[in-house]
Structure formats: structure tokens, C-alpha cells
# Entry
Amino acid sequence: MINEDTIVALATPSGAGAIAVIRLSGKEAITLADNHFKSVSGKKLSKQKTHTIHLGHVIDDKRVIDEVLVSIFKDPNSYTGENVVELSCHGSIYIQQEIIQLFLRNGCRMANAGEFTLRAFLNGKLDLSQAEAVADLIASDNEASHQIAMQQMRGGFSSEIAKLREELLNFASLIELELDFAEEDVEFADRSQFKDLIERITFVLKRLIDSFAVGNVIKNGIPVAIVGEPNVGKSTLLNALLNEERAIVSDIAGTTRDTIEDELVIEGIGFRFIDTAGIRETKDVVESIGIKKTFEKMEKAQVVVLLFSAEEFKTESKRLKVEIEKIKNKFPLKPLLIIANKVDVLNDSEREALHSEFENIHLLSAKTGVGVDTLKKKLIGFVNTGALRNNETIVTNTRHYDSLLKAFEEVQKVKSGLESGLSGDLLAIDIRQALYYFGEITGEITNDDLLGNIFANFCIGK
Amino acid sequence: MFNDVYDVIVVGAGHAGSEAAAAAANMGSKTLLVTMNLQNIAQMSCNPAMGGIAKGQIVREIDALGGYSGIVSDTSAIQFKMLNKSKGPAMWSPRVQSDRMRFAEDWRLLLEQTPNLDFYQEMVSGLLIEKNKVVGVKTSLGIEIKGKSVVLTNGTFLNGLIHIGDKNFGGGRAGEKAATGITEQLVSLGFDSGRMKTGTPPRVDGRSLDYSKMIEQPGDENPEKFSYLDITKPLEKQRSCHMTYTSEQVHDLLRQGFDRSPMFNGRIKSLGPRYCPSIEDKINRFADKDRHQLFIEPEGWNTVEVYVNGFSTSLPEDVQFKALKSVVGFENVKFFRPGYAIEYDYFPPTQLKHTLETKLVEGLYFAGQINGTTGYEEAASQGLMAGINASLKVQEKESFTLKRDEAYIGVLIDDLITKGTEEPYRMFTSRAEYRTLLRQDNADLRLTPKGYELGLASEKRLRRMEEKHEAAEKFVAFFETTSVKPEDINPILEANNSSPVNQSGKLFKIFSRPNIDMADVRKIDSVETYIQDHNLDREVIEQAEIQVKYSGYIAKEKNNADKLSRLEYVKIPENFDYSEIKSMSFEAREKLKKVQPTTVSQASRISGVSPNDISVLLVYMGR
# Structure
């Protein structure tokens, strides 16, 4: 089987690491890599022998993205049997995504689950017994991507697309209706309504694409304000979180951060922790300024973590309740996580008392590690339930991003077709393509959908 | 009486059977056409028309391959219309109103002139089968006729049951008896069978209608025709149809009979086509519509019988009569015969291969309504394909199939055998992924070379096609290479609200603009001169216009089709064991087991099989 297009994907596990490998495979792999690679020796990759490694920079126009090592493997002596380029870049998620997006914008397509292996098969690089082993791998890969899709769905992203797809499908049906049943007494698709729909779709697609392109999530991490008195164990908590995940150091120019910050990545989503002082009422002028600053930081954060030590709960539960109410009143929409640290000093009945007194309290011991994993799950849960960004949807999946870009492109063609009064059958070509890309995100689409829709809603047939 | 062994025996002589017999005989197979009544060859059991949207394209395809439907449609036409002319060329759909009696007569005469073809009138009541291979047929008189292959085209006759109100009786068509025996035998061999329903409206006496109260619907001013051959000519005179509407009063009268309607009282259980509903279904399901269109179609040049299209019904005849009488223009209506519904047996077509041969019995082919389709055109095209493949099989040659981007016939058969159908299947352009490629104007280019290779399309057909397309290509090249000056083109552009040009440019670019058509560019001297010098006919000019104006879209669809067709080359071995593939969804495994697709591409079109399942399958196919 001849695959004409060149595919790209991350070859190492997703998430941050010391280095990451991005793989390109396809006829144009070396040429495309050449377009965005400047080797230190000044040589072109296309002039190099197979199985050689080259040091240089990945360049987007004039901007240097990263210093990388490039390995080239020429057809047929590669994993897939096609021309393959492997870029070893630095492991930050930001750099990974920048490089992948650079290639997506310039002639590559996002690889489907298991597509490298698939190509390896189709080009006869693996035999049948190997095939069975890899089939298992691919199945698990699908399960993983399915999970991501499910998370996205909970975040409202998929349902937003599904809704748009349905509206577009309705219009496509109307267009098909006037094509296939021109002789019948049916209403025609209202072009001005259609233009409105296309405008709306354009707007939503743009927002979704931007949510990725701006990359608030992936680029900068989600800002989390940790509010607590100096002695409640903030740094121990951060260390406990960081010990298990690898910290990434941001070197993005122009981003100024005002407080001590730490970043960590949980399940591929970056979180940026902002340390703040507590908000205990005080008459001290200096401390009052501190409280004002704390509120400002909470304002900017997407999630607020209120950290107390377990002892405080015992002695000052009244004050804590006041503080919790204060935050809730000030930021009613902001996700708030109340954490009791140092729970290792409590006995079972004391823990239960805590639970009954404070709703949704999270018990944790940064020292022993109890509750740290649950905390991570809760944080990632905010992303997946859409509690962040005031319910605005975020696209984090590069495959979805790829589909969105293509859908956007097709929708723009529909738009210009509508403006020039293009006939329905030709409009339908672009609409179908757009539906196809929506379908890549939400599931399958077949032509039967269109006909079913027509028969369900219109009286047709002589 | 029958000592010889036939190569191909065709059972049934409707649209499918007639095409099947003609194709097999023309390909040199010794062929027998057996039917219950030789007076009723190629009957139009429903409306007197051929073609229409998507269906017209099919007739053109049949003609391009060397079938007879296009020729007979031309010789028996009383009106021609190119539907959807205001839309893009993929939507242009030819349709004729036909002289019903002449249509059947012309078919019969053409078949009689076909070499290698014998006829016999008898009901076939069973198949002769040895070791899962068909060896002939048995008639109701007990005669055994030997054949190497059999094409079944039974239409609505298998256990046909006609309903009019609360009365019902066995029959294959009004006034003709049903066929029995075949379903039972096939089921005992392991075939699945089901029931379908269709209906037809009353036929009335045209002399009893007041056409002055109706809207006249004449044919096209410049009629075209179906056949690519020049043995048929466009119509010089035509007959009009008429249109009128039902009313609330008509609906009320019809409702009074609902309790005696076999549709509503549960007597008819099988599913009818959603796109061809009966009038009672229309007023029931779309209660908010206060009127429905009725088309009054003449049944021929001379007959007074007319067909009331849109009034298909199985209500009691007295209700039909009373309701129709209150339709504007029908005040004095006289019935020839009432409308009726008919239930009949079909065999879910997922039991077939792409060649229309059954998976269970070698040498046995199904075509037409027996496969769950509806429509003369759908039936005829299947008959053609079954006849071709039966013939090829007997001659031990490679089978012949058409892909989805090659013909509507390819879409039709692939849909049937891959997805099956629950309701009578009719073709729509929206069923085709690549309809911009499947146009009525290029069916010859797509299919005549294939028909010629099969020995069906004549050399003359091939030459005509080549000449037409060569002339069109040259004309397109003329547009690509010829420049036009601003002073010559700007007045034309301005007249069409198209922005003027500043400097000379190629005609092709101007012509590609959305609001510029052939009539506009012909105002340029060089274009008109070229047409006159090369003596270009309408077809060539039209072809060139399509190539210029829609080249972008055609190229885009071609590209999409090519991308998809890669999977077409990944074959799945016969009897592949899907239960082994645990990483595939259970539903997908079940569906794949049932359909047994031959390529991964076909597998991907089965509902319930997801892209993920396909990836896994591809891995297992790991070439």
C-alpha cells in the first residue's frame, strides 16, 4: 500500500521528560524536516546518508524553537519502511507541541493511533507473529485515546462539536432535500439562515482552535493559588507533588511571574502553583497589604487551594469557616479545594469529625504522602469537568486540534461558496468534508444520516 | 422439450430479467428467458416514466455499458425533461414519461432480435441444485430445464399479496397471479427471507378529468435523450403532464376509511418505502400539511388511461373513489382500476457477493426487487450486472464489478450487499460519496470502454465516445491557451455583475467564474468561430463547459476517491475468522462475520464498524 501523505507524532510517552522524540514518516519526511531544520554544519538533510545523526535547530520562519538531534532513516531501511526522521528535542510539552504543530501546519498529518506500526506492516517490515503482538498494543492505544475522548466529552468539548455537527447535518439534509427531491413540494434551505449557522460554527471553531493555539493549558499551565499560613506545610505539599512528577522549567520569554512558582504536569496538563500568604484578619498594616495581594492572586488563578494544618482545624474551626465563606463569596464560580494537611497527627474519630464539619474537605499528609494522589486526581478533575475557565472549553488533544483546523478550512470554503451563490451539489462537497472532520472527533458519519434525517422530517414522495 | 443445457436461465421478464437476458445473450451465452406471461415483458407496473434524479444517471450508465433500457426509454418516450438543470452538472437528471404499451412492445421486439436468446412461458416453481451449485430450474408443470447458471428476478411475485381496503388476495400484480415455491425452497437451503410492501395509485379515464383546472407541466423545450447511440432521436412533439392538489376535504374523506386501511389496522406488517409513502401515510404523518401535490401522467400517446402520481393508496376502493372525486379537476372521475398495496418476499441482499451471485448457492444470481430494491432503473441495472456476471462465470472469465466512484450501479450494489436494506431501496444522489464524478453526461466515458471489453458495447459506441471526449478536450485546451483582451470581455463581465479585468488573460479563467456560462463566452468571436469551424455539437460544447467550470470540484472529489480507494486494495481472505480478533468490538465482529466483506474498504462501510475496528483489521491483514 502506498501512503502518499507524511505523518507526524510524538514517539515517546506523552508528558514532560528530559528529552522527547518526534517522528515523521512518509515520502516527504526528509524534505519537510529539511524545511524547518538548520544543522550546525550547514548541511542539508536530504544530502545525508541514511542512519546518520545531525545536530541543529528547529526553526519556524526565523524563530528558533529548540536545539535538536535529527536521525534520518531512508526508505526502505526504517521502522515503517518509508523515509523516517526522528527529532530528539528537549522534553517540555511546550516544545513538543510547538514542533508537532509546526509540521502540521506545513504538510504533515497527525498520525492516527498505531499508524506508524500500520505502515510498517503494510510495507512488509513486520511479520504476522509480530503483528499479533502489535495489535494488542494498538488496542490499548485506542483505549487510551478513547479515555481522552471521554474526558474531553465531559469537558463539554465533544458535545459542543456534536451539537454543531447536528446543526450542520440538518442543513446538509436540507441541501440534499432540494437536490434529490427537486420535483417535490418541499421547502428549500434558507441560505441566510445557513450563513448565520456558518458564522456561528466559524466562531466556535475559532475559539476552540485558539484555546489550543494560545495553549493556556499546555503552554503556561493552569494557575493554582495555594492559600495558607506560613506554617501549614505548603512547601512540603509542593515537594510531595513534585517528587512524583517531573518539574518542568519554563523558559518562555516575556512571561513574568510575580511570586514563587512551581510547575508540574499531571496527566499531560501543566499546573502552575502560586504561593500566597494567608488571609487571616489582622490590624498590622504590612500584613493587610499581604492579604490584598493574596486576593489579587486568587483572582488570577483558575483554582484556589486553601491549605490548613489539621491542628488549626481543631483549635480555630470557627475562623476557618469564616475564611472559607469569604473566599466563596468573593469567587463563587472559582473551583475551591479545601485541604487539611498533617492529618497523620489525627486519630480516626478526629478525621471523621473533620469530614462532618467541613463539606468536601480533602485530607492529606504531605509528609507521609497520604492523599497526594487523590489531590492530583481532583486537580485534573477540574480540567475534565470543565470547572476551569468558567466552563469554557479547552482543546488539549492534538488529534482533535488537527481535525478542528481542517473542519475550519472546509467551513470557510462553504462560507465563500454561499457568498458566491454556489449550487447545492457543490456546496455539499465542502459540507460533507466539514462533517467528516467533525465526525473524526465525535464518531462516525455516514450518508445514511442525511437520508434518515430527510425521511424523518419531510413529506416527500409522489 | 429442453434437451440442451442453457448457459444462463433468467427467471422473470421485468426490467431486471429483460436486461439480464439481453446482456447474457449478447455476450454469447446460450440464454433462456422464462416468465409467467410472455405478453407482459418489461411491464411498467407503477408509474409510466423512466429516469429522474439519480435514476436517470443509472439509465445512462446502463446504456453506456450496452444495455437496452436507454434505447427503449427513448423510443417509447412521450415527454423529456432534464431535471435539476439549475444546479451543478452532477445533478442534471434526465427523465422521460413513457408510452407504457410501446415501452413493453419495444423491449419485446428488441429481445426477439437478440441472438442466443430463447423464450418460454411458465411459472418456475423451484431450482435444481446439486452440491450447493445450481444446475437448472423446475416449472409448475414439472418440466426440468438444465442451466449452468440461473438469474432470479421475481419482482413482487414471490408470495405476492395484494391489499385493497379490508380485502386481500394473492397476486404478483393487478390481474396476475403470484409465484410460489421458490421462497420456501431457498429458505430450506438456509437463505433468510423477509417481506416488503409497496403500493400504487388508481388509474383513471383521462376523458373524465377537467385539465383546465390543473397546472400544465410540459416537457423541455429542447428535449435530449438517454442513449449515447444515434439510433434514437430526441422527441419532436411531446405530451404534457398536469398537476393538481389534494385539500383538507379530500384528507377528511380519506381519514374516514382509516379503520378499514390495512396499513393502519395492522394487516400489513412489512415496511414500505419512506420516500414513496401512500397518501394515507402522508396525511397521517404530516398532519400539518393541508395539501399534497398530485401529478397526472398520461400512460401513452393515444391511450386515455392516466396515472395519478402521488395518490398511492390501499384504502377501500369506495373511499379512494369518493376522496379522489373531491380533488380539483377530478369531479367527474371514472376509475380504470383502484390503487392497491402489495406485500412480497425478498431476500436480504447481504447474502450476495458483489457479482450478485448468492454466497450459498454457486451459479445462482438475484436481481431487482428480490434484493429489496424499488424502481425500474435500480432493477434493470442489477439485471444487467447479474446477466453479465452469470455469463462471465459460465465462460470462466473474471467477474465484473463497479466501484462506488465509477458508477451509481456500483454504489447501489455495494450498499445492498454491505449494508443490506430494511425498506425498499431507491437510489438518491446523496447515497454516492462522489456524485460529482458520477454524472449523466460522462457515463459513456466512465463505462463504455468497460462495456466494450465485455463484448456488450459495440465498437461504434466506443468510437462515438472517444470522438466526443477528444473534441471536448481540444475545446477545453482552446480555452486554456486562448487569451482575451479586456475591451472584448469587460462588457460581458459587467453585464453579468462580474468584476472587470485590467489586462489580457486566458479565457479559461474568465469562464471559470461562477456567473459566467457558455452562452456568455460564446459572445466572444474567437469562441464562436472555433465552434463553427470544428462543427461542435451540443454534447461536446456541454462537456467542455462542465470540464472548465467544475474542474476544481471534479479534481477534489477524484482526489478524495483515490485516497479512499487505497483501502480497496487491501483484500480480506474468504471465510476470515473475526472471532479471533479480541481487540475489535463485539458488534463489529458480528457484523463482519455476517457480511463477509471482500476488502477493508467495504468493511469500513458497514454500520457498526468503527474506524478503530478498521485499524485493527488492517493490522491483522498485515500484508
